[in-house]
What we know:
Strand order of the largest sheet: 1-2-3-5-4
Low-confidence stretches: 141-146
Helix content: 40-55%
Structural class: alpha+beta
Largest sheet: 5 strands, mixed, barrel
Oligomer: single chain
Strand content: 15-25%
Number of strands: 5
Shape: globular
Amino acid sequence: MIGSIRGKIVLKTEKFLIVEAGGVGYKISVSPDTLSRLDALRLHSGQNDTSVSFWIHTHVREDTLDLYGFLNHPELEFFEMLIGISGIGPKSALAILGITSIETLRKAIGTGDTSYLTKISGIGKKTAEKIVIELRDKMGTELGGTSLQGELDSLEALKSLGYSQSEAREALKKVSSELDTNAKIKEALKALGGK
């Protein structure tokens, strides 16, 4: 199985990349969050042909072999925990990882906040409950007691100002989770205004 790939991105779409490594182009599915982080890395480095490295999950079915790429190992581990849950496939797990940071997802699961998972990702209540039940013990107890209501309130406030759910989620990803709701909204508006 392929565990990691390092190479040059030769094609980028909204859902996957082609990374050339050793003369072979690998089609790697990635989350929208990974794509935006890659764009930020490229802008920061000032080069378009920089080498990138991905941790890879190789998903084998009887008729396909798909590669899923992650910029860091904790994302890969979280992805593999998600696909270990009955009813959640790789595409659903990638979509869940794309909605917010792993830390926020861990808080939602650790506190049993199924309403956060259903509102922010669009997954159903039963799936959210299944994720919480199966992963809560793996998330640890250090996250208990943390409320995500401020995150939901911020999301709803941005949506009421006319931003789409995806625009609001992207802006909130860039804001510190330590801020109160009003400060989160202000910082998210700054991020949205900077576009």
